[in-house]
């Protein structure tokens, strides 16, 4: 695998605008969080988002999803040859791939997740659901971590945890919407334990007590993942921590909105207001989280392949302008923290 570049990442103005438009149209939460990232990291994150969005749309909007998947794989082949198709998202993503030396296994896993969706796959238990979530969400978290210049396995594992937590939150929020499209992502063994007949529920989705309890169970699983994932933020460059913590807090808030509704995701669809997002961003700026230790718990079994793929051959993280500045700020902050502690102890 080639080494990542030590220069600051940049895109030409046209591609930059295309990526910005993609994120504005696709995700207000991601947009809000990305605005807090330092310049070149923000640009690379938006390029990554634009490619993920474009591939997702290609599958969703294709008359034949199988053809859409084949097209995505062909475009990835071209990107990893360094000869991208003439699509703005592809031309932006090839710059990210080459600058940060992103392993092909990561976007390949994302496409595999799309393939599982096309096949209307169901998930027998929570581990199988996490295998799906690893592909469609943890892949992005791991790629983002590499973009931020970090390849430590513990931090990558926590980024993958955050991807799992966010995707489980998505699934909890969309239970009713998915059912009306003939889809169910909740673990089948949980439905059986709750006495929910899958086919009857799909035919007539109702926010019955059993489904509310199952949704609550999924959110409890997500909550434990958020708690572990948040410790990984301390392993990121200081200049990136507020953005990632904001994204985590905003997504976690969706689960709290579902809780407020009595875990009814059938007749209601939870969302976080702009005002509440701003409050959470302000909360993300608080200092206690900055230096807490990163949890060294092993990666979830279903994300280990992503962590290993990302860490393989990456003994040294890229250190562009943003990473160097972040390291300098972090050293200064630690020095100030030690000074205050010493003054307090006198």
Automatic annotation (TrEMBL):
Transmembrane segments: none annotated. It is an enzyme of class 2 (transferase). Keywords: Carotenoid biosynthesis, Transferase. GO terms for biological process: carotenoid biosynthetic process. Its EC number is 2.5.1.32. Pfam families: SQS_PSY (PF00494). Its cofactor is ATP. Pathway: Carotenoid biosynthesis; phytoene biosynthesis. GO terms for molecular function: geranylgeranyl diphosphate synthase activity; squalene synthase [NAD(P)H] activity. InterPro entries: Isoprenoid_synthase_dom_sf, Squ/phyt_synthse, Squalene/phytoene_synthase_CS, Trans_IPPS_bact-type, Trans_IPPS_HH. Signal peptide: none annotated. Belongs to the phytoene/squalene synthase family. This is Phytoene/squalene synthetase.
């Amino acid at each position: 695998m080639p080494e990542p570049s030590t220069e600051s990442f940049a895109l030409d103005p046209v591609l930059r605008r295309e990526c910005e438009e993609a994120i504005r149209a696709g995700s207000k939460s991601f947009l809000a969080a990305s605005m807090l990232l330092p310049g070149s990291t923000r640009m690379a994150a938006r390029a990554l988002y634009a490619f993920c969005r474009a591939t997702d749309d290609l599958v969703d909007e294709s008359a034949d999803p199988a053809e859409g998947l084949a097209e995505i794989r062909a475009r990835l082949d071209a990107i990893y040859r360094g000869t991208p198709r003439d699509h703005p998202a592809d031309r932006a993503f090839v710059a990210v791939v080459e600058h940060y030396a992103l392993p092909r296994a990561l976007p390949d896993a994302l496409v595999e997740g799309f393939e599982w969706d096309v096949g209307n796959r169901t998930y027998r238990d929570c581990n199988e659901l996490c295998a799906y979530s690893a592909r469609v969400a943890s892949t992005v978290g791991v790629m983002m971590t590499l973009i931020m210049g970090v390849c430590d396995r513990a931090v990558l594992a926590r980024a993958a945890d955050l991807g799992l937590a966010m995707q489980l939150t998505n699934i909890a929020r969309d239970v009713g919407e998915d059912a009306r499209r003939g889809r169910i992502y909740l673990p089948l063994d949980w439905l059986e334990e709750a006495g929910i007949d899958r086919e009857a529920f799909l035919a007539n989705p109702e926010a019955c007590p059993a489904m509310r309890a199952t949704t609550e169970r999924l959110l409890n699983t997500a909550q434990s993942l958020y708690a572990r994932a948040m410790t990984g933020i301390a392993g990121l460059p200081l200049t990136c921590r507020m953005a990632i913590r904001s994204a985590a807090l905003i997504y976690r808030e969706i689960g709290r909105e579902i809780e407020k509704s009595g875990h009814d995701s059938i007749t209601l669809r939870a969302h976080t207001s702009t005002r509440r997002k701003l409050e959470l961003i302000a909360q993300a700026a608080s200092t206690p989280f900055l230096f807490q230790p990163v949890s060294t718990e092993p990666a979830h079994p279903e994300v280990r392949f992503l962590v290993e793929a990302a860490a393989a051959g990456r003994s040294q993280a890229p250190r562009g302008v943003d990473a160097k500045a972040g390291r300098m700020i972090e050293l200064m902050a630690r020095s100030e923290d030690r000074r205050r502690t010493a003054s307090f102890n006198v």
